Amino acid sequence: MNSETATTQRGRPRNFNQNDALEKAMRVFWRQGYEGASLGELTEAMGINKSSMYSVFGTKEELFRKAVEKYLADHVSFVPEALNEPTVQQALRKLFTQSVDFLTDKQTPLGCFVLQGALNCGQGFESIQQQLIAQRLGYESLLRQRFELAQTQYDLDSRIDAAVMAKYIATVHEGLSIQATSGATKEELMAVVEIVLNNFNS
Q: Which long-range contacts (C-beta less than 8 Å, at least 24 apart) are formed by 138-147?
């Protein structure tokens, strides 16, 4: 057994699960932000050493990008599903209800990983910040497309600017995330959601 193989075996436990390790790294980034998450914290959470992290996941930036992809695929997959509801009112109610459940779930770090990451990203990490901004804009685009569809189905007033409405809903969503991170309860956030939905429907 050569030295490289020995190092890999020492650095990566026999029962190493790449998906579980990525989940643990994602939660560190979620709590600390990209800049605040040290390599030591990441590798300790993942249960591997730095050389094994590099060999399996690449650089810290590559690890972060993979963590974002996992977050979108696993934790917030309910977003596009909610937007498939038959009416725009049903879609928004399901989207906000599931979002509040998610944002206040104490089984995971509070708030939105993408938003938290963008807010906690300082100078020198523009590529990371731009990735997160692109994800947020992608969310707005999904909302805009849903509102445009509703207009073609006569489910939403055609005089409404779908892009502006999408930014409004995204802004509310971001506000809910910040409030959740600050300790707002599920009941408090749902009271806000009811006001938003009532105004939307008026």
A: 139/79, 139/170, 139/173, 140/166, 140/167, 140/170, 141/166, 142/79, 142/80, 142/83, 143/83, 143/169, 143/170, 146/83, 146/88, 146/91, 147/88
In angstroms, the CA 197 to CA 35 distance is 36
Give DSSP secondary structure letters for the chain. Answer: --HHHHHHHHHS-TT--HHHHHHHHHHHHHHHHHHH--HHHHHHHHTS-HHHHHHHH-SHHHHHHHHHHHIIIIISTHHHHHTTSSSHHHHHHHHHHHHHHHHT-TTS-SS-HHHHHHHT--TT-HHHHHHHHHHHHHHHHHHHHHHHHHHHTTSS-TTS-HHHHHHHHHHHHHHHHHHHHTT--HHHHHHHHHHHHHHHH-
pLDDT of 78-98, one tens digit each? 999 999 999 999 999 999 999
pLDDT digits (tens, 9 = 90+) for 151-170: 999 999 999 999 999 999 99
**Alpha carbon distance 125, 200 (integer Å):** 37
Read off the pTM: 0.84
Tens digit of pLDDT for each residue in 100-153?
999 999 999 999 988 877 666 655 667 888 888 888 899 999 999 999 999 999
Maximum Cα interatomic distance, the chain, rounded to a whole number of Å: 72
